[in-house]
Amino acid sequence: MGLDRHLSELMRRAQDGDRRAYEALLTEVTGLVRAFARARLPHADGVEDVAQETLLAIHRDRHAWDAGRPFLPWMYAIARNRLLDLVAKRRRQQLNEVGSDRLLEEVASSAPGADREPANRFLRRALAMLSTRQREIIQMLKFDELSVADISLKTGMSRSSVKITAHRGYKALRKLVGEPGS
Amino acid sequence: MRTDDLIRSLAADLRRVQPLRAVEQRTMLWAAFSLLSVLLGTLARGTRPDLASKLRDPVYLVETALLLATFLLAGRSAFQLSVPGAERSARGRVLSIVGFLLWGAVVASDASAPSPPSLNGASCIPTILGLALVPGLTVLLLLRKAAPLRPGWTAGVALLSAASLAVLASVLVCAREDRLHLLLWHFAPVVLVVVIGSGLGRRLLRRAPIALPWPGESRRTKAGPSLERDGSSLWIARRR
């Protein structure tokens, strides 16, 4: 109850525009959400994503906290929602990664000509039509065989951003090669 | 971006906000407004000629009470769902659905309903949709201003509330009592509206994306950056 009262007071001041109270609130919230996510995620690598997503959602929805209600159920409801969203996104991304591995092979094999060089040229032309960022990410993933974590370190992008950019690149490639269902 | 930097960015971006009114207050205000708009619509349309005698019929009173309860319970649930953590249990949501299904069951089992039934009477659909329009749009607009975490459920119960109020008004207007007419042209359209609304919940209750200043920028643009421009940090990527 003490913690909830303390956080509620910080939130009330934050709604009023007090930046110092808001920074203190978000710092305390981060610790709570990290513990919440750590207890529910099988791997630690998503914990920080959940914490950051929760902070962003709190920032956007801070007007929706009612000072007459406790703060912690509000905060944990947002954290839970962000966590479930992240888990669902990752599941989708994993499926897409498997699909896109196949796709690149199919792009090469579906290219005109029997020998490998025309197929490679076709693939290079298709890649050249992607945005610079998408092309770089796909090249690093599929040709340089770097992992998502390595690319994240190399580019400064988050792992999620790398995956999303690659996914969009694959989608664009599907369109370019006219794959059914694209 | 490191979480500490994100916290600093968020704090720097802080502006004073006007908190939402309490759930109960918002529910009451919306319910009062909806009742008024539907009452005006009903009066404009004209009530059924036998309304005075129907108001002494216990089955008719049970039916209208069930619709009224559905309207209030579903409305309250929708506003609760629009505030994270405000819904302590799903009881209100479930009860509102049960209330409406019970109304359907009472209508279907009413032994005094005249026969033979006929398929005519589709004109009740525009009446119901017309009466539900103002409460339905208002509730969706109000919910968008809050923070619904389960948009499908939120939109579904919100539209159930608006539609059940419209059906309540429609039985004050429509004098037809055969079961098939009521089930086909009063009950089924509500089910359809709720199912479609629930499916489109994410779109109907779509809110502005999370918006933050660029590093080194005091004000951000409305559209925000895209991954293609710069995907250098998690929080920029999530702004889309």
Describe the structure.
The complex is a heterodimer of chains A (182) and B (240). Chain A is mostly helical and 182 residues long. Chain A has helices spanning 2-15, 19-40, 47-60, 71-109, 116-128, 132-143, 148-155, 159-177. The longest helix of chain A is centred in the middle third of the chain and has 39 residues, at 71-109. In chain B, 64% of the residues lie in helices and 0% in strands. Chain B contains ten helices and no strands. In chain B, helix 5 (91-109) runs parallel beside helix 7. The relative contact order of chain B is 0.14. Chains A and B meet through helix 2, helix 3, helix 4 and helix 8 of A and helix 1 and helix 10 of B.
Instruction: Work out the strand percent of chain B.
Output: under 5%
Runs of chain B with pLDDT <50, length 5+?
A: 213-240
Overall structural domain count of chain B: 2
* Strand composition percent of chain A: under 5%
Please estimate the helix content of chain A.
Answer: over 70%
Terminal Cα separation of chain A, in Å? Answer: 53 Å
The total beta strand count of chain B reads 0
Distance from first to last alpha carbon of chain B? 16 Å
What fraction, in percent, of the residue positions of chain B are helical?
A: 55-70%
Estimated structural class of chain A = mainly alpha
Structure at a glance:
Chain A is an all-alpha fold. Chain A contains 8 helices and no strands. The model of chain A has no long low-confidence stretch (mean pLDDT 82).
Task: Please describe the topology of this protein.
The complex is a heterodimer of chains A (182) and B (240).
Chain A: H1 2-15, H2 19-40, H3 47-60, H4 71-109, H5 116-128, H6 132-143, H7 148-155, H8 159-177
Helix pairs in contact in A: 1-2, 2-3, 2-4, 3-4, 4-5, 4-8, 6-8, 7-8
Chain B: H1 3-12, H2 23-45, H3 51-54, H4 58-81, H5 91-109, H6 124-144, H7 151-173, H8 179-199, H9 201-204, H10 234-237
